[in-house]
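dude i think i finally got it to work??
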Amino acid sequence: MRYLVVLSCLLASSITTASPWAAPGDERLRHALQQLVDQGCMDALTGTWPVAWRDAPEELLSASCKASSAYRYLLHERRYAQSSGFAGEVGISGATAEPVFRGFADQTRERGQLNVRVGSVGPTLAWNLQAQLVDAERDDHATRLDGSFVAAKAYGWIWGAGAIDRWWGPGWYSSTILSSNARPVPSVWLTREQSAASTLPIARYLGPWNLTMFAGQLESDRVIAHARLLGARFSFRPWSRLELGLTHLVQWGGEGRPEGLDSLWSVIIGRDNGETSGFADGEDPSNQLGGADFRLGLPLRASTLGFYGQMTGDDEASGLPSKYVGLAGIDWATSFAGYSQRWIVEGTNTVAGGWFGEDRLLTTYEHSTYGTGLRYQGRNVASTWDRDADVLTVGAMQFFNNGHEVSLNYSNAELNQAGTLRPASLSPSPLVLAPPEKTRISVLSARWRFPVKRHRFTLSAQHFSNPLVTVAGELESSNIMVGWDYRFDY
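look at this
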């Protein structure tokens, strides 16, 4: 598989094939959607990805909204994703080393990857078959079906099964509860087809709302084999400028663990916190996260300003989340020299209690029973920075009218402040991609993506202030990534 690295050394871009939703990964699409929402051009909810294409209407009432480059790009991607017949993509990607830190922007997860996908969207049924051939140093599985799904629309809901990426929360570089940092977990799910406001007397005050739920199964090579991963998120916009989200994520069941209805009911009502909930040590039925987030978006003439935050509790007290971790940020969308930009400042703290009280190290995303923690295939399912991290990121994105886009971001990070990892998190294969000791590091990332007809090329790089030592080995201070893909329909 080394020939993939030699041939391309690369980074895959995120192009949406035929699908009823827009998947996380495309920064330009998210920027365009967020700008239109903040300007009051549409009521889409932007904190829950995938985003249903029905939330991005074909027609807008305002002429100024229709004339914007954001709307033109959004409409172009929607029409391609919703076109009749088959649509697909072929691409090759790789890197000089496995990328460690993965934000909202799509990038290869491995040193080399060959990717092929094809799909179709009909009136009631959509499917996508996606296959990868990878060169992965930590993973013995050379073939994957990540991104594949089948979904059906019925009674205003989408019912689906497959392995799709999700991003829950307002952050651009991380999430404290669920992101696309790890590979997608195979699952079944239910989500609202369109986030329209309810017409019921009381519910209509919620404004546009969405509910999505999934049930997935984690891998076998972990402390509790085949543990279930359950997630639910309710988001709504009670005011045109304010979006709120409530999220619940649970590890439950698995080999040797109770999976009956009584155990599941304890999970639902939050009765799972050891002796305080009446359970003996090690008999907790689940490992849970729960939290809330917000985004306030304000129009400023031709620009928009956003304030956002997310807090997630890693434990339970009196039936509510406790031991919070947090994320907060400001973003500013501008239009200089006829082009569009977004400027971002984002801070993340994954020390339990960190911003909200007493520090509790070795807590977030960990569990005494589910020893592997909230990780899948060696990566954290929530924060790209993993637990006990304090990170400040400053970033900028430039979007040109010819389809070129450039992004640059700088992160100053203090990782694994506990200075150790739990022994149980080291045993599964692949090895966890995290530093085993307290690490101070600065990360500079740059990315350039541009189209040539139906081809799309991506060049990117990450530079560390010093070589990064992880459980899987030491990484050089620089990592170069390049990618090519081509999409088609017929």
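The chain has a mean pLDDT of 88.
im so relieved honestly
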